Amino acid sequence: MTQPLRADSFPMISHAQAWETIAQTVEPLPPSRVELAKAANLVVAEDIVARDDSPPFAAAGMDGYAVIADDPSAVRTLVGEQEAGLRRDYSISPGFALRIMTGGALPEGADAVLPFEQSVEHEGLLHPQFPIKPGANVRPVGQDIKAGEVAMKKGTPLGPPEIGLLASLNYSEVLVYPRPRVFVFASGNELVRVGAPLRPGQIRDSNTLALSAALRAAGAEPIARPDPVADTQTAIEQAIRTGFISADMVISTGGVSMGRRDLIKEVVSGLGEILVGRVAIKPGKPLTYALITGKPFFGLPGFPVSSLVCFEQFVRPVLRILAGHRLLWRPSMRIKLAQTLKHDPDRTEFQRVCVCCSGEGAVAYSTGGQSSGRLKSLVGANGLAVLSAGKGDYDAGEEVEVIFINLPELRE
Ligand code: AMP
Ligand code: MG
């Protein structure tokens, strides 16, 4: 009898090899045009060119008086008032000035705005109290951006200021990479969805909701299967096929290691091509990555910490590529350990730590027991300490690379 496809049917590859293999298979999703109001946190898929000058006319940068800066007259006669939003065609010559509000169109002839605070107005006459330079408090045409200028490069993530800039340039719609839609399901005969009664031997499925939250935090749109999938080939195959009908990616948890009921690899090899089946990392050794009809599939290990750490290490950067981001990696830094961390040199290990800042700088504390089933090792953690393969325990006081799992990606 031939052995079913299990974790040990695949070569053990390094974290770097696994990422390289995966990265080669993904590219940004086809972009589409969306309303600007729905584009926040997406990535723009075209260079944004200013169609007009902004501001479109020379405008007052302060409330005051439009004057000719080099006008030698000691007193100037006021010719009227220019409010923002109206445009009366005044013209200023030496000896004259115009009361003007911030944003009002600078009248012809004037080249500066004397602030109210620096002048006295009395019976229709302006008495400047301070000298002023040409151009002072004036926003010239195109000061922010000139027509034809590239306001924003393709690949820019749209945060609040970028959305504002697009609005100011009158982009009511914008070409963006879509939010990746990701189908997620848990597999395991022992699993029960939250809220349903538990029978002896059963446990709660926490992965579906934890991963849905991780997907949302990564800017993806989760499509979660509420009920766990049984450990049978038919049920697993049906879940994966259903997922790919509407999603850009499918994620499962559980069923990827060595047990008799670990059938994900077997099923997936019938539907597509498994590119990664075993990685030398802890947690996450049996991580599975495949292409199914050209789309990415991740078989994450079942233990809750393993699935979230693998998500962080592999799924999240893939989602960022799909969504058009260039920056894929969160910042990491060498941080001093507050305590000894036990480490088996056979694999790279991602231990959950909490980095705190004291008078002496940043130090990393372990979050306690590091078992892959103990979600509390991740609750409250703000870092993953990367303990290298080939090295044993890390001593208190030693420095270790820590990936900051709450900080946004800063590296390509
Ligand atoms: P597996 O990878 O299927 O062998 O699962 C390993 C262990 O992880 C199981 O024995 C469960 O205790 C746990 N587990 C698997 N799936 C889930 C899940 N969706 N939610 C919570 N725990 C899980
Ligand atoms: Mg299982």
Q: How is the secondary structure organized here?
A:
Blueprint: H1 15-23, E1 32-35, E2 43-44, E3 48-49, E4 59-60, E5 64-67, E6 76-82, E7 96-100, E8 112-115, E9 119-122, E10 125-128, E11 138-139, E12 150-152, H2 160-168, E13 173-177, E14 181-186, E15 191-192, E16 203-204, H3 207-217, E17 221-224, H4 233-246, E18 249-253, H5 264-271, E19 273-276, E20 281-282, E21 288-292, E22 295-300, H6 304-322, E23 332-337, E24 348-358, E25 361-366, E26 383-387, E27 399-404
Parallel strand pairs: 6-7, 14-17, 14-18, 15-16, 18-22, 20-24, 23-25
Antiparallel strand pairs: 1-13, 2-13, 3-12, 4-11, 5-7, 5-8, 6-10, 9-10, 19-21, 21-22, 23-27, 24-25, 24-26, 26-27
Helix pairs in contact: 3-6, 4-5
The chain binds adenosine monophosphate (AMP) and magnesium ion.
Magnesium ion is lined by residues 188, 254-255, 261, 302.
Q: What would you note in describing this structure?
A:
- With 412 residues, the chain is of the alpha/beta class.
- It folds into four domains: 7-30 and 178-322, 3-Layer(aba) Sandwich (Molybdenum Cofactor Biosythetic Enzyme, Chain A); 32-53 and 143-177, Molybdopterin biosynthesis moea protein, domain 2, CATH 3.90.105.10; 59-139, Molybdopterin biosynthesis moeA protein, domain 3; 332-410, Beta-clip (Beta Barrel), CATH 2.40.340.10.
- Helices cover 17% and strands 29% of the residues.
- It has helices at residues 15-23, 160-168, 207-217, 233-246, 264-271, 304-322; strands spanning 32-35, 43-44, 48-49, 59-60, 64-67, 76-82, 96-100, 112-115, 119-122, 125-128, 138-139, 150-152, 173-177, 181-186, 191-192, 203-204, 221-224, 249-253, 273-276, 281-282, 288-292, 295-300, 332-337, 348-358, 361-366, 383-387, 399-404.
- A six-stranded mixed sheet has the order 8-5-7-6-10-9, with no helix packed on it.
- Strand 24 (348-358) and strand 25 (361-366) form a beta hairpin.
- Helix 3 runs parallel beside helix 6 and helix 4 crosses helix 5 (264-271).
- The chain starts with 14 loop residues before the first helix and ends in an 8-residue tail after the last strand.
- 39% of the residues are buried.
- Bound molecules: adenosine monophosphate and magnesium ion.
- Adenosine monophosphate (AMP) binds at residues 186, 188, 191, 203, 205-207, 253-257, 259, 262, 301-304, 373.
